[in-house]
C-alpha cells in the first residue's frame, strides 16, 4: 500500500486498491484501476463493480452530472481494464457483505486501459463456467475471489513454514531437477539428453538422496519447498507434479523429528488458522490396522473395530464360520437408518473398489430387543452377546463384515468412513492429529515374489529388529512415521540408514544385484564412506496441506496451473508432440503403436 502511494509523485496508475476504501476516506480524491466485473444501469445512474486482487469498489456515474462520462461508462464491457479518478462518497444503500460496501466513488474521469472480449464464463464468486472451460482459461478463473483466496492461503503457509524453520536454523537449499531415478515407488518422468545420445535424466520423485548427501556435507538442518514429479495414475488428490515441504536433520533420533515437525504443523495452525491443535496421538501401524483397518485413521470419531469371532462363529452361519475374521463396528444412533440407507450401504461395500461379499447388521431396538439381517441363524440371546461385546445400546446399530483379516479390515475401514459421513461425524473444523509409527520395513509382493521397501530403501530398520533382517525380514519394523490429520496423510518420513554395509544389505534384500545397486546408488554408497552422520527427515505434501487448511479435498484448487485427471494442461495444451527436428536433435524416433 505504501508503495502504491509512493507512486503518486511519479507515474500513477492508482492511489488505492479496490479493497481499501472505507467511510473514513469519504471526501478524498482517488485514482483506481482494475477490471469491470459488472455494470448496472438504474435510471439516471450507472454503477460499475471495479475489481482487482484486493476486492471490489463500486463506481457511480450520474447522467445528470456528467452525461458524456456516463455514456462512456455504459459502453464498457465485462473485464475491460479501466482507470478512474473520482471522489469517495458515502453510499445511500450500503452493502454489508462487502468490506468497501459503505462507500462508492463518484467518478470524474475515466480511461480505458484495455478492452476485453466477452469472457467465456462469469468471473464472479459463483460462476457459470464448467470445469473444463475454466481449466482452459485458468488465467481468467484465477481472477475469481475463491481461487485467489486459495492461492493467498498457500502463500501464507509457505511464508509461515519458512519463518518457523528458519527460526530453528534450517537452511533452504535447492537440489537439481534433472537427475537420476529416486525410488519413491512411482514411475519416473524422463527427459532425453541432447548432448548425451541415448541417455536420459529423470525428474525427481523427491529430493531424497540429495538431502541425505547434504547431511553428509554437514548442513544438519535442511528444508526445501520443492516440486516433485511422479508419473502415476491420477486421482482427485494427485497431480503429476506437486510440492513438498521436504526436510532433513542430522544428529537426531525419531523423537526429535516428531517433536520438531509437530511444532511446525502446530505453528501453521495457530498462525494461519488461529487454531490450537489438540495433542497428537501416537499409534503404531499394527494398532492402527487393528483398531481402524487403515494406516491413516480418521480419529475425529470412534466406531473402533471389534473382533467378533468369539461371539459369531460356530453357530451354523457359514459366512462367519469360513472367515478368518469377523469384524464389527457399532454406529451410535444408527438404529435410525432406514431400509433404503442400509441397502445403499450394502451396495457400497459390494462395489468392486471395496470388495465385500455382503453386509450384516443388527439393530438394537428401543425396548432392548434386536433386529438383525441374520435372525434365522442368531436368536435374541446370541445377538445380546454381540451387543455386549461391542457395547451397543438401544438406538444403535452393529455392522459386521467377514473375510480374511487383511480384506475384512480394509473393507471395514471404508464402511466406517462411509458411516462417519452419514452420521455427520467428519466435520471440517474439527482436527484430530496423530503420528502413525513403527511401520513395517518391507512389504511382500505376491506378483513379483519379492520385497519392496514400504517407505523407501534408505529407511532404517529398528535397531532392536536388526537381527531379524536375515531370519524373518517381513517382521522387521522401521523407524518410519506418518503424520495423519483427519484421515489424511499429510507427511511421512524416516530415520535413515547411514551405514554403508547396512545400506548394501538393504539393497540386496530388495532384490538389487551389487552391480545394479552400484549403478543406481553408487554415489550415495560412496558418500557413506566419508563420515555420514546419523540422520532422518520427513516430507509434507504441501498442496494437500493447503487443501486441508482450505477445508476441501481437491488439491487442484490450491495450485495456480494444475493438470486435469489425464495429466493434461488444457490451457497450454500439454503434453504435445514435438517436431521431427527436435526429435532428431534428441536422438529419438517415435513409433506409435497403431
Ligand atoms: N522422500 C520421502 C517422500 O517423498 C519423505 C522422506 O522420507 O523424507 O515420501
Note down, in words, how this protein is organized.
There is one protein chain. The protein is of the alpha+beta class and 594 residues long. It folds into 3 domains: 7-114, OB fold (Dihydrolipoamide Acetyltransferase, E2P), CATH 2.40.50; 149-282 and 434-558, 2-Layer Sandwich (BirA Bifunctional Protein, domain 2); 301-426, Gyrase A, domain 2, CATH 3.30.1360.30. The chain contains 18 helices and 22 strands. The protein has helices at 2-6, 67-74, 131-136, 138-141, 145-167, 208-216, 254-273, 285-292, 309-312, 318-321, 339-350, 380-390, 405-422, 468-471, 500-509, 514-527, 542-550, 580-585, and strands at residues 29-42, 45-52, 55-62, 81-90, 103-114, 171-172, 190-192, 200-202, 221-229, 241-250, 281-284, 306-307, 325-331, 360-364, 370-372, 397-403, 433-437, 442-445, 450-453, 480-485, 488-495, 535-541. Strand 2 (45-52) and strand 3 form a beta hairpin. The protein is globular. Residues 184, 206, 208, 492-494, 537-539 line the site of aspartic acid (ASP).
The counted number of beta strands is: 22
Described by strand count, sense and barrel closure, the largest sheet is: 8 strands, mixed
What topology, given as strand order, has the largest sheet?
Answer: 6-9-10-22-21-20-17-11
The radius of gyration is 30 Å
**What is the third-level CATH name, the topology of the largest domain?**
BirA Bifunctional Protein, domain 2
Ligand identities: aspartic acid
First-residue to last-residue Cα separation: 59 Å
Average residue pLDDT:
95
Short description:
This protein has 594 residues and is α+β, with helices and mostly antiparallel strands. The protein is 29% helix and 24% strand.
Amino acid at each position: 500500500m505504501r508503495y502504491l502511494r509512493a507512486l503518486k509523485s511519479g507515474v500513477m496508475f492508482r492511489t488505492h486498491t479496490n479493497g481499501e476504501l472505507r467511510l473514513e476516506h469519504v471526501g478524498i480524491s482517488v485514482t483506481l484501476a482494475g477490471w469491470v466485473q459488472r455494470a448496472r444501469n438504474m435510471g439516471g445512474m450507472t454503477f460499475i463493480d471495479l475489481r482487482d486482487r484486493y476486492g471490489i469498489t463500486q463506481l457511480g456515474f450520474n447522467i445528470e452530472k456528467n452525461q458524456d462520462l456516463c455514456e462512456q461508462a455504459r459502453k464498457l464491457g465485462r473485464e475491460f481494464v479501466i482507470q478512474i479518478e473520482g471522489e469517495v462518497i458515502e453510499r445511500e444503500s450500503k452493502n454489508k457483505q462487502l468490506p468497501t460496501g459503505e462507500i462508492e466513488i463518484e467518478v470524474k474521469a475515466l480511461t480505458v486501459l484495455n478492452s476485453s472480449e466477452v469472457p467465456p464464463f462469469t468471473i464472479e464468486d459463483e460462476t457459470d463456467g464448467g470445469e473444463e472451460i475454466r481449466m482452459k482459461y485458468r488465467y481468467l478463473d484465477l481472477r475469481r475471489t475463491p481461487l485467489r483466496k486459495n492461492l493467498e492461503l498457500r502463500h501464507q503457509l509457505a511464508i509461515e513454514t519458512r519463518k518457523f524453520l528458519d527460526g530453528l536454523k534450517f537452511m533452504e537449499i535447492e537440489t537439481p531437477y534433472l537427475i537420476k531415478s529416486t525410488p519413491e515407488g512411482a514411475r519416473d518422468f524422463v527427459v532425453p539428453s541432447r548432448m548425451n545420445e541415448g541417455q536420459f535424466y529423470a525428474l525427481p520423485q523427491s529430493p531424497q538422496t540429495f538431502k541425505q548427501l547434504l547431511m553428509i556435507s554437514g548442513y544438519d538442518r535442511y528444508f526445501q519447498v520443492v516440486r516433485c514429479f511422479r508419473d502415476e495414475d491420477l486421482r482427485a488428490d494427485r497431480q503429476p507434479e506437486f510440492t513438498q515441504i521436504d526436510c532433513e536433520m542430522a544428529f537426531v533420533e525419531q523423537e526429535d523429528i516428531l517433536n520438531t515437525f509437530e511444532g511446525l504443523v502446530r505453528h501453521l495452525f495457530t498462525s494461519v488458522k488461529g487454531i490450537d491443535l489438540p495433542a497428537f496421538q501416537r499409534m503404531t501401524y499394527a494398532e492402527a490396522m487393528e483398531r481402524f483397518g487403515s494406516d491413516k485413521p480418521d480419529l475425529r470419531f470412534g466406531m473402533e473395530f471389534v473382533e467378533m469371532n468369539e461371539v459369531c462363529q460356530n453357530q451354523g452361519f457359514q459366512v462367519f464360520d469360513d472367515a478368518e475374521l469377523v469384524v464389527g463396528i457399532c454406529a451410535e444412533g444408527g438404529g435410525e437408518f432406514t431400509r433404503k440407507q442400509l441397502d445403499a450401504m450394502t451396495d457400497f461395500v459390494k462395489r468392486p473398489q471395496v470388495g465385500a461379499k455382503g453386509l450384516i447388521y443388527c439393530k438394537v431396538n428401543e425396548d432392548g430387543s434386536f433386529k438383525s439381517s441374520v435372525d434365522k441363524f442368531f436368536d435374541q440371546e446370541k445377538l445380546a452377546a454381540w451387543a455386549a461385546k461391542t457395547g451397543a445400546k438401544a438406538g444403535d446399530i452393529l455392522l459386521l463384515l467377514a473375510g480374511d483379516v487383511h480384506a475384512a479390515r480394509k473393507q471395514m475401514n471404508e464402511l466406517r468412513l462411509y458411516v462417519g459421513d452419514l452420521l455427520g461425524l467428519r466435520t471440517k473444523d474439527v482436527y484430530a492429529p496423530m503420528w502413525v509409527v513403527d511401520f513395517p520395513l518391507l512389504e511382500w509382493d505376491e506378483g513379483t515374489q519379492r520385497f519392496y521397501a514400504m517407505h523407501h530403501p534408505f529407511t532404517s530398520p529398528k535397531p532392536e529388529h536388526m537381527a531379524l533382517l536375515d531370519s524373518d525380514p517381513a517382521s522387521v519394523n522401521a523407524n518410519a512415521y506418518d503424520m495423519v490429520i483427519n484421515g489424511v496423510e499429510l507427511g511421512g518420513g524416516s530415520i535413515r540408514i547411514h551405514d554403508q554395509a547396512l545400506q548394501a544389505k538393504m539393497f540386496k534384500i530388495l532384490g538389487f544385484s551389487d552391480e545394479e545397486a552400484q549403478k543406481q546408488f553408487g554415489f550415495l554408497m560412496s558418500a557413506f564412506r566419508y563420515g555420514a552422520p546419523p540422520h532422518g527427515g520427513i516430507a509434507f505434501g504441501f498442496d494437500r496441506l493447503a487443501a486441508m487448511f482450505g477445508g476441501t479435498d481437491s488439491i487442484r484448487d490450491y495450485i495456480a496451473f494444475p493438470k486435469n485427471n489425464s495429466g493434461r494442461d488444457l490451457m497450454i495444451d500439454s503434453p504435445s508432440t514435438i517436431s521431427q527436428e527436435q526429435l532428431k536433435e534428441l536422438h529419438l524416433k517415435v513409433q506409435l503403436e497403431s
